[in-house]
Amino acid sequence: MRRAGTALNDAFRLLQAPPTPADEPPRPARRLRTDHESVEEDLLKLVLTVVELLRQLIERQALRRVDAGDLTDDQEEELGATLMALHDALSDLCAEHGYTLQDLNLDLGPLGPLLPRED
After folding, report:
1. Residue 113: strand, helix, or coil
2. Domain residue extents for the chain
3. pLDDT per residue over 52-74, tens digit each?
4. Do 91 and 9 form a contact (C-beta atoms < 8 A)?
5. Would you say the pTM of this structure is higher than 0.85?
6. CA torsion sign, 101 to 102 to 108 to 114?
7. pLDDT tens digit string along 79-119?
8. With the CA atoms of 34, 106, 102 and 43 taken in that order, what torsion angle do they form, in degrees rounded to the nearest 10?
9. 3-state secondary structure (DSSP) of residue 107
10. Reduced to 3 states, what is the DSSP secondary structure of residue 17?
11. Nearest-CA neighbor of 52 among 107, 102, 119?
12. Based on CB atoms within 10 Å of each CB, which residue in 22, 33, 77, 115 is the most buried?
């Protein structure tokens, strides 16, 4: 988990966005309702899902920045290596707990899946 956290932190550091004003005030989070016996597994799966969502968002932002020419060659190399390390760390964590990356894709009903399909 530490390896994934370090890689995620590195990716955020490399892709710092300019500050933007908040469009709407924060709202209180909804409570999760889970079965008492499975709370740890549900929480772990939720955390892994959020990390995967962030990894995919960072990856897309990185591709936009590369296409726009905003990064130097060294930054592109470092970012690519960091994103690969994060993907590997997340895959290892999933395997360690009996999940696949596809298991993390929550079905949001009529909205469709949470995570876009990886091609």
Report:
1. strand
2. 2-11+39-108
3. 999 889 999 989 999 999 889 99
4. no
5. no
6. positive
7. 999 999 999 999 999 999 999 988 888 888 888 888 877 65
8. -30
9. strand
10. coil
11. 102
12. 115
The angle subtended at Cα 57 by Cα 51 and Cα 63, nearest 5°, is 135
Token match 């995919």: residue?
56
- CA distances (Å), 18 to each of 8, 15, 21, 56, 99, in order? 18, 10, 10, 19, 35
**What's the token pair of residue 113?**
């899946």
**DSSP 8-state assignment for residue 115:** S
Q: Which phi and psi (to 5°) does residue 73 adopt?
A: -60, -40
22 vs 51: CA distance, rounded Å = 23
Helix axes 73-96, 2-14, angle to 10 degrees: 150
Of 75, 104, 90, the C-alpha closest to 11 is: 75
